[in-house]
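Saturday, quiet lab. Running sequence design on the structure tokens for the scaffold JK sent over.
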């Protein structure tokens, strides 16, 4: 276990915000985590916060409590039946390294989720998604520690209540449960998911044929598309998509289509999903800057730190963008990023 006091978090958040925390603890096993949580409870009311790679959060001020970070590693095959295999993975494993490992070993399913920044623990909390796939589809169970008691607890897939960028860990279990391991059910048979329109268009443009696609080629293809659109967090601070794509009622969508017939819209479980990137671009924000923060010029859903931005600079930009989208389209954007 490693403990630091008055710790600088710049390297622990992909926005590269220079916030500090009072104490930082990195632990390497579920047993260590259980002890840490019991100690933290004993010294309440100091707050604590758990972070992964910090690829989905925005520090708006220094954190007055303890930041916890998992270094629980390891990938093991725990079950195999028919074409299916179950992998149990430590929450501190890097997500993309897991995807690369699976592609190499012939465990299929995660290819579309290549290059998403972050760690395995966060994949289960955030239900990360891209190109028509979501992590939750593959998650069989999530193991963790109950923060109040320090006892282990296991949630099955249905208990996790996965939805678009959502899970029980963001609601009832927020601050009450820390993920230690995630079990993914993958397939030994490669069945590429090419349902996402942009993937089909890019495949056609590159003359890639679906029946000849290998898992490696699909991974490389997704990596290429992401690199072309999204900033590399090592070079330019960002947290990927800043807002969620809003879902609006059919009547709202139909009304907007009268004025904006080219507005993209997709049927969703409870209405129509409209790409937030389109709304932001059509509010004139794509590529625009506000001080050291700006809207990325290749993907309008991404806010970036061009250097030295504080959390407050990013918040100011996000509020200005949301206000303009609300004013023009009457749609309120919700951040996907967690504000700390
Ligand atoms: N669009 C614009 N302007 C832009 C970019 C996109 O108008 O600058 C419109 C286009 O119509 C495009 C549509 O928005 O067809 C969708 O764009 P894209 O395929 O890039 O996806 P997105 O909805 O903006 C979501 C995820 C991404 C994920 C992609 C691909 C959310 C919040 N974001 O973005 O996830 O990579 O789909 O599946 O759902 C992330 O969560 O950090 C992230 C990058």
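Result came back. Writing it out in full:
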């Amino acid at each position: 276990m490693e403990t630091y006091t008055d710790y600088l978090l710049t390297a622990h958040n992909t926005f590269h915000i220079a916030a500090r925390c009072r104490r930082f603890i990195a632990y390497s096993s579920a047993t260590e985590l259980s002890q840490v949580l019991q100690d933290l409870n004993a010294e309440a009311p100091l707050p604590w916060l758990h972070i992964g790679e910090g690829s989905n959060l925005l520090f708006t001020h220094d954190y007055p409590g303890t930041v916890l970070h998992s270094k629980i590693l390891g990938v093991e095959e725990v079950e195999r039946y028919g074409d299916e295999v179950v992998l149990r993975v430590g929450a501190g494993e890097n997500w993309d390294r897991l995807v690369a490992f699976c592609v190499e070993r012939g465990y299929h399913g995660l290819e579309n989720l290549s290059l998403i920044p972050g760690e395995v623990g966060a994949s289960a909390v955030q239900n990360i998604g891209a190109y028509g796939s979501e992590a939750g589809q593959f998650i069989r169970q999530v193991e963790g520690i109950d923060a109040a008691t320090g006892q282990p607890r296991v949630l099955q897939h249905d208990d996790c209540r996965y939805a678009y960028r959502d899970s029980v860990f963001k609601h009832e279990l927020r601050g009450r449960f820390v993920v230690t391991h995630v079990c993914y059910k993958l397939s030994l048979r490669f069945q590429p998911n090419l349902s996402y329109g942009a993937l089909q268009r890019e495949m056609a443009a590159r003359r890639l044929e679906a029946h000849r696609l290998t898992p490696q080629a699909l991974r490389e293809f997704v990596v290429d598309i992401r690199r072309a659109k999204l900033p590399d967090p090592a070079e330019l601070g960002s947290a990927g998509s800043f807002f969620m794509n809003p879902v609006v009622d059919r009547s709202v969508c139909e009304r907007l289509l009268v004025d904006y017939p080219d507005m993209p819209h997709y049927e969703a479980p409870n209405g129509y999903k409209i790409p937030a990137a389109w709304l932001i671009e059509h509010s004139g924000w794509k590529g625009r800057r506000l001080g050291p923060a700006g809207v990325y010029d290749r993907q309008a859903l991404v806010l970036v730190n061009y250097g030295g931005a504080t959390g407050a600079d990013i918040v100011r930009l996000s509020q200005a963008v949301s206000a303009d989208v609300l004013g023009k389209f009457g749609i309120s954007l919700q951040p996907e990023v967690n504000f700390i």
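Notes for JK: Helices lie at 30-42, 95-105, 120-126, 197-205, 215-229, 250-259, 276-281, 311-329. The chain is about 25% helix and 30% strand. Ask whether to fix the surface positions before the next round.
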